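Researcher: Last one for today. Full complex below.
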Amino acid sequence: MARVRTGVRAIGAVLAAVLGASLAGCSATGGKRAEDARRAAEAQGRAAVDTPRWTFAMVTHSGDGDTFWDIVQRGAKQAAVKDNVKFLYAHSDEAQQQAQLVQTYIDQKVDGLIVTLAKPGAMKDVVAKATRAGIPVITVNSGSAESKAYGALTHIGQDETVAGEAVGEELDRRGRKKALCVLHEQGNVGHEQRCSGAGKTFGGALQNLYVDGTNMPDVQAAIEAKLQTDPSIDAVVTLGAPFADAAVQAKRTAGSEAEIDTFDLNAKVVAGLKSGDLGFAVDQQPYLQGYEAVDLLWLYRYNADVLGGGRPVLTGPQIITEKDAAELQDYTERGTR
Amino acid sequence: MTATAPPAHDRTGPSDERLLRTSPWKKLLGRPELGSVVGAAAVFLFFSIVADTFLRASSLSTVLYAASTIGIMAVPIALLMIGGEFDLSAGVLVTSSALVSSMFSYQMTANVWVGALVSLLVTLAIGAFNGVMLVRTRLPSFIITLGTFLMLTGMNLGFTKLISGTVSTKTIADMAGFPAAKKVFASFTVGGVDVKTTILWWIALVALATWILLRTRFGNWIFAVGGGAGAARAVGVPVARTKILLYTGVAFCAWISGQHLLFSFDVVQSGEGVGNELIYIIAAVIGGCLITGGYGSAIGSAVGAFIFGMTSKGIVYAEWNPDWFKFFLGAMLLLATLLNAWVRKRAEATT
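Model: Here's the assembly. Have a good evening.
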């Protein structure tokens, strides 16, 4: 064991040396220093209203570390600061777990609930329980068809089929003949709806390709393999922003001429649109989904206001191309688009 | 070859079966990777027939790339399994390694090589932690590395959110040292051909691991420790040191894979890597490593990774209905492993 201890001490010494050396080995470009220089300190948020401090909770079907839901949360938090609301958030990609999380918030007697209905069946009872307990519920993102029937006030989100249809139309407008729809989660209903929606309006042929979303090199190799097999594919549509870049690299290695398009935004997608690596992106404005949900719950509590007139309030699809990219760059970098 | 004197009666004649001369043919049949080589040949033939594009040079290089990203990790996992242990944290450790590297470079505005070096130390420390915990607590490696797996999954997300404010890292593509690091860890062009460096790393690691296993004292220790730790300790094998070194070996390869992830995509998603640990283990098992330890080879793990790469990409080349993707993958893997086991049984029967 003495040998182990000496080893630890040696590692410690090397670590200290490296930390010292890192101050010398600075990068002249990029990095945090550039970010700090670029952005002046943002003003601290302060509540704009003096309503009682209500507590709103949001429960989503997000997995761990999902960029999209990070942006939704950011929107919700900023609305909560402005509305003098305490905002709670929980998530689980298992339907049963998600329902249990909603139940815990009902037990805590929160003043408003925001839930997603990605797996509607599992959420039905618990949403009914919340409304029975007098807690107003707003559904976001997924479940526009079930929202009203389950007793929610409003649904805020994008209709996935409509979004898919918009993609199909845009592909037609760009004269594409054969498109590939890359699904990174097998069995996700929203993903299937997007691809089938695109297939519905697209004049050419559309094929699905399932990839393993937790393994980026595998995503790239799978798209590469598909493009090599079928050189007539002239468009690739990925369903999440991080996969667009993998598709761009796959296209390069496969020597394909296909245009890469994607759902959702992030800083890299915007940069890709700007440089021409990407054709277009379909944005459903996740920030708006979080922000509006909190704000509408506040409006309901304060003024009994309801938006949408019984119909879903759509936050997308918004087709974003090269000409919008410059404007959106700052917003994606701060994580709100 | 530890210091054990040969028994005296050995000199009298071939009364000991260990001293019998075996023909090269029989020696070949006794190799652990033989079954998987036959399996790989079968899978290769199969896809060459059903998929027209499979045999093209560009397609094969894609398959090789897919195999290499698994293979780099399957090598140390195979060694670890020969040594009788498991590592469930290997998949997320790759992501951790990439995250540390990226975030250190970004936050310190340091040259990306400095970040990579810090990441190497952190990753090796995590590997050593696994090993030290294992030999100190004497708990099964399944429990120890499951604990590390969960902690790393949480830390990947928690630290990334804490430090960069979002769930993915910021781009470091515009920072000093990036182009060179990209050449070393991702890809470079030679005469217009894009070469993925993972393939070179993979070949080098397989060669190194094979040399260690077959030609060095440490290699003997690995087999001894996996065959029976008690007996190994009795003949003077440093069991604890061997196991800790095996875990640091896994960590070192996780670092290479992690740097590949970072320098080929330049942004790292913190939630990645979960589930990959099983793929590495599957590759090692297909390649002839016994789950119980003491038997296996590095070349076998490479063949296992190659089978995995061929199957997962071959399905795409064959243009099968994607709804059945996972089913095909599972069936192919099962068939390859069964064939592997069958060949090995036949081989053992003839020796």
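Chain B is about 70% helix and 0% strand. Chain B has one domain: 32-346.
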